[in-house]
Amino acid sequence: MKKNNFKSLMQAAVLICTPLVIASCDDVFGDVDNPIPSHLTVSQAAVNLELHADRPDAATFIRKGIAATGAQLVYSSSDEKVATVDANGKITGVGEGECQIIVKATGLDSNGKQTYQEAEESFTVKVKDYRARIELIEGAEIPVFNSADASLAEIDLSKVIKVWPANVNIDFDEPVYSGVISIVQDPTTKQESIQLTGTSGTAKVTAAIDPTEATVNKKLFETYENKSFPKNQITEEFEITVKDGVAYIAGYELKNNKVTPVRKTMFKDYNNEKYTLLSEAAAAQPSGDLTLNAGWYVVDNAATSLTRNIRVKGDVNLIMSNDLDMNGNIILDQSAEKSYELNIISDYDNPYNQVYDINKIQDFKKVTVDRNLYFNIITDPNFKNIGTLNVLSSYINGWKFENIGTLDIADANLDGTTSEVSFKTVNSLSISESWLYKVSFNTVTALNIADATSLDWTSFAGVNSLNITNKAVLNVGNCTFTTIGTFNASKVNFGTTTFKKTIGTLGLTDATLNPTFGAGADAVTFGAINLKKSNMTCAQVVLKDGGAITLDGGTFAATATGDNYAVKGNVVVNKGTFTASSPDFHAVKGNMTGTTFYETNVATPAATDWSAITGTTSQEPYVKGEKE
Q1: Is there a common fold for 47-129 and 133-243?
Q2: Mean pLDDT of residues grouped by 10 in the chain (628 residues)?
Q3: How far apart are CA 442 and CA 482, in angstroms?
Q4: Which CATH architecture has domain 133-243?
Q5: Given 3.20.20.210, 2.60.40.1080, 2.60.120.10, 3.40.50.620, which CATH number is that of 47-129?
Q6: Of 229, 253, 303, 610, which residue is the least packed, with the fewest Cβ within 10 Å?
Q7: Does this model's pTM top 0.85?
């Protein structure tokens, strides 16, 4: 009985232990259903490689992964442009940069059986390239150049060619002469550059490191080996394409406190840009007035003279690459609505070309002129019926303007020596940084003159609002002001000046004025006079009912003759010195407030006899009436 029990116990033990033994064997040997760890390890230290022309060994390194016996490993590079790796873990540097070398346990054993668990490790490889070399940048596109860019110093190819070291000299070569480019060497640095000749076409070019650099710049090549300068180290051939174009002044900007032109280029027919040569437009219409449809036109050397009018049918931009003789003809808006724009634009490289011997420009919605018009002196207006007119940097010799909506003139010479420059019926007129001589303004709603360099022999009549302002003091001479609504001036010294008829409000700031007043039908009446830190000396002043002279610093002095009042109107002195004198005891007819007034130069002082009244803010307040 005992023997049978022992036998039964042994059978049960075998049944229980057999699966455990099998499971334990799987842990040791593994199978596809239960792979064992591959135990992959690899050094994480970065590998530093160097590329040298004469030391290939410095560009390689072997690093292998360690894994369980029989586990298969594969090696790969994250960037084969920097470094490659073979099946044995040999790393070879290719180009400068950083990449990762990945070591992967595939899980297969030497028999190709899936025995191990997959695993992956990686480490960094850094490659420094010490070989002097030159190459075209992969994928770089050379832009199409504008022939007008011939005026620039050189073509920038830094985004096309890469060279190591970065600051070595480059030799360019044009195997077949094209006439499109020129290769220029700086006599001091010996550096070559490519410049455009202004001719359209295509040039084929190669680039190489100057072979003399290895001996000339020895210090530079302490790290870049001299041996890496083979003479055949030349880039692939690349093309420089140049198409016809023009450069023009697209406006002005302030740089370093100086107004400078803004340069812009346009292709004749490329990259959604297009212009027509004026000679081409004229050849297409051999007779009658020349009609220009909307678009851009360039005055070329084959169209320097027109013996007919130009009629504009659409917004037109005319670039002055050459002078244009209009032979006494005119440019006008063809539309009945007068809805078109005309821009006469300066060529950037030839900014003084002109439209000359022209009589009129009229009937436009808008006109812009940049230093390039020379009108004939005629009886009729040169500019007429223009909605908006801008005139820049021009010599305005006897021009006549009439019926203009908004007119802006900047940096111009308004010279009426031969024939008076005239403005008639203008809604808004601004003149800045300009020289004015013998100019007349008649029926102008708003006139602003800012920072003028000169203002002489000029007449203003029927101006609703007039402002003359300056950063520096302007000396004004021989000017006449007739029927002005509001007249404000700052930093102006008026020389010979005449006021006639009605001046609504006269406001002076930091100014000096000793005017003459018109007589008889031209006798002047002021609505108000406001002086701030200004000096005014004059004869009798007459103000409208309720009008006043207000003094806020400076001096005011009026002297009457005969039995006239020196001032007919009210006086308010907040600061400064006021003086009114009359030989017949008629100094001021009106209210005097805001300061002390007292008598001077009276032979027999009496309470009602005031031949001279002065007031200053240094006295106690007191107001005294005048003798009727």
Answers
A1: yes
A2: 50 46 44 82 95 84 92 95 96 94 91 90 92 86 95 89 82 94 91 94 92 62 54 82 96 85 96 97 96 97 94 96 95 89 95 94 95 89 96 94 97 95 98 97 98 97 98 95 98 96 97 96 97 96 94 91 86 87 77 63 44 51 36
A3: 10
A4: Sandwich (2.60)
A5: 2.60.40.1080
A6: 253
A7: no
